[in-house]
User: Fold this.
Amino acid sequence: MGDYMKEDKIEKYGEQTRIFKILKEAIPYVVIILVVVFIRTFIVTPVKVNGSSMYPYLKGGEILILNKLDRSYHRFDIVVVNVNGTKIIKRVIGLPEESISYQNCKLYINDEEVEDFVTSCITDDFDRVFIPKGYYFVMGDNRQNSSDSRDYRVGLISKSQIEGTTSLRLYPFNRFGILK
Assistant:
């Protein structure tokens, strides 16, 4: 009877050792998964360009990297915005506490002409819009085919709606690089 108990203890010890080895080998993989989830949730994540509103600068199907840590937005930055649960990619045109208008294909900020990122005359005129503190005026580069701050369904964008900036194109590989 004593030998049977010894064999049972040895078998249980062997099973515990095997489980310990499996857990020890799995720990690095669990850590990697947690780090990737943390990075994608709080730091950077890929985003896909849908549609043609940013054409010709960005094209549908391109993959960009969204920097979620960047919370300072400047004129002509490309941002990802959450509008009613839909993510859209646009360019910041007007900043908080500015007035913006387009007249005769020219961008005016606080009644002074500013050189626009889009140099061709494709932006329809619109009257002066005042941007309150904490809000931004965004537009697509394809001004004739863009739902942006000019559209009442999008309107002015609050800072909390901006998920971050994007300045790196990953795909297609022949267009890989920094966005300007």
Remarks:
- The CA atoms of residues 33 and 138 lie 35 Å apart.
